[in-house]
Amino acid sequence: MLIVQNTIIERLNDENETVALLRVLWVWEEENYIVVINIDNSREIDLPFFLNYEDLVEEISERKSRISAMETDLRLISPEDSYLEKYKDSRDKRWEIIKDIVSQEPDIYLSESRGRLITEAHLKSGKAKKVIRDYLKKYWFYGKTRNGLLDNYFDCGAPGRERTYQNKPGARSQDGNTFLVTEMDKEIFLSAIRLFHIRRNMDIKTTYEHMCETFYKRGFYRKFGVRVPIVNPEKSPTLRQFRYWYQKDTSFSKRYANRHGKRRASIDVRPLQGNASERATSIGALFEIDSTPADISLVSFDRKTILGRPTLYIVIDVFSLLVVGYHVSLAPPSWIEAMVALENAVTNKVENCARYNMQIEAEDWPCHYLPRKLVCDRGELKGKNAEKFVNLEVDVLNAPSYRGDLKPFVERRFRITNETIRQLLPAGIGPKPLVRGDRDPAKDAALTIEEFNQFLIVFFLTYNKSALNREYLPTKEMYEEGVELTPLKVWNWGSGRKLLHEKSRNLIRYNLMPREQAKVSRFGIEFKELCYTCEIGIKEGWFEEKGVKGSKYIEVTYDPRNCRSIYYKHKDGNLIQCVLTSKYQEYKDLHFDEISMIMRYRKEQIKLQERNEKQHNSELHAFSQALSKSAKIETKKETSDMSFYAKQKDKREHRKVDKERWGAAYAWTNTHEENDMNLDSGRLFHLNQDTKIEDTRTSDFYDDAQTLFSRRISERRVKRDLDE
After folding, report:
1. What three-state secondary structure class fits 429?
2. Is 438 in a helix, a strand, or coil?
């Protein structure tokens, strides 16, 4: 082990704690000694002393001591240029006094010769011996460096410690105010800031005035019918004192937040020392997604109606800054619209562009992969919706509200996109609101949503081939391989290297589409008041008694934009498409919101008609009661002397006669305004007992039965009369 000049040695106790800190000043090889000085306390420096070299080495080997890498005050040994320039003259004067004696080693370390050398320096310079001795101690303490002779003013003034004043510090106030701020006053200052500055949004001067009126009053007087507080100027702080302590005890960012709110403070005055792309280590590591109203007014497909501003979604890869997907919708931001944007980002762009009659090559827009992480705001992708990305191996990171700075790349792309839209397309809407007299840009609206999609495809293709912004920092590997700094080239260079992965379109849609419970019954899969069916369900008997796997309820996924079909994940893992039954084919291609409105209309109308139905039934009941009463009276009048058997006699023949007469009266060929049938009191002519009808019955059995039946009825009437 080698011990040399300026080696620092820690001496340890049994508990491995430092008990002494020694600096090696000189190694006396002939005598096997070293000279050390204790550097524990810079205010009380002891003279150097001798130690046996071998004993010290043994202590270090036995771990009773150890060599340390620490150093004394570097502020003094290696000061800043300004500090050195200010005090180097005094340092050099001190060095001139001791430079001739410090080099005489080991005599300067021996007490009997050190006194003689100090005396010589005293006689030569005229400085006191004690002063020269202090110069030597400082020189040795700071490692035999000339800067050790500098004046140490770094700890002057007790920095970081509050002073206790008996009188008001500072210059005397012109108004003679001698108010001394105490700890209680500081608490009052904080309360006033909280009550008036933060809660009531007052400025500092008004806050100070209200504080004095509230906490430093000596009474009240009445004026204009109200109590006015009397402020005591001699026993209240000044505005300068209040402002000083507020600024001293509160950081600038906290003061800014008190005045403008935490949201503004987090954006306007937070430290900008990080790198927004540090989480994106490669292609596909991090995507950003967000939505904004596009700065353009669109028209309907027939171009007769101005539809207003569409909603624009953009998905961007943070590492390459490539726009990997987008979506335009006339609906407000929602989970469904974000789902479509993500589906566009992670699927084949050739097929997506072909929907809008735009033919591109695969290498023009080669991104169709899933990221590892997805950054969004606390909007469409928060809560349970974010959990759906677990199955796609994507982590969703939700930025706090109003923190667009945490997803700066997509926000910057929105700004540039809207600027381009305003400059190149008609009906571009400016960033500032219209004022009276301005021309409404909606008057120039001409593009449909399909044409706007075509423009965006060309725009994003152009951007992906353009140069990256000047703030982009390429990696060392990109520099070595000479990668062209465009989003497309960086993407192609990094694709397939680390984190990109992909899933099938069906799996992506299944995980992104919303899921809900549906009921299985004889009518089909009942979902949102519609019924669906599928061939597998018919074969497996879902719509019979047993349902699906013995359950009447299943989980289905659906696209709310079209009710034509829904999806069910079968036991074999395949997605089964279920279509509307024939009863509900009228509603195909409608939005589920439209279905909801139709069904709500149905319920409301049925309830309304059921309420009106009561009155209609009341009319029916009243008419039927009157008709029944009249008919009973007329029938009783005509059949008062007839038995029940007599009224049923010759029923077939009478029915035939009435049928013919009723049919003849209301036949289509009857052109008489009034029929000539024999009517009696508004009734059709009926056969009476004198009408001769040919009897076709030949058996005497019917005559005997009639005689027996008549006799029994007569006996019952006689018995009833006797009982009465």
Report:
1. coil
2. coil
Q: How far is CA 357 from the centre of its chain?
A: 35
Contact 322, 486 (CB under 8 A): no
Helix runs in 366-405, H state only:
384-387
In 10 A of CB 407, how many CB atoms? Answer: 22
Judging by DSSP bridges, how do beta strands 323-329 and 311-317 pair with one another?
A: antiparallel
Pick from 495, 506, 281: nearest CA to 369: 495
Beta-strand pair 8-12/65-68: antiparallel
Half-sphere exposure at residue 353, Cβ-oriented, CA atoms within 13 angstroms: 22
Q: If residue 617 lies in a helix (H) or strand (E), which one and from where to where? A: helix 592-638
Q: Is 51 exposed, middle or buried (0-12, 13-18, 19+ CB in 10 A)?
A: middle
Candidates 586, 604, 606; CA nearest to 595 is: 586
Length of the chain: 724
What is the residue type of 576?
I
Q: For 701, how many CA atoms within 13 A lie in the half-sphere containing its CB?
A: 2
If the chain, 724 residues long, is cut into consecutive pieces of 10 residues, what is the mean pLDDT of each piece? 81 84 85 86 87 86 84 82 88 91 88 90 90 91 88 70 66 68 88 90 90 88 86 84 87 80 68 54 82 90 90 89 90 85 86 88 87 77 70 74 65 84 86 80 89 91 88 82 88 71 75 84 89 88 78 86 85 81 86 85 87 87 92 90 86 89 85 52 41 42 55 66 61
Q: Kindly report whether the global pTM for this prediction surpasses the value 0.85.
A: no
Whole-number Å distance between alpha carbons of 495 and 285: 11
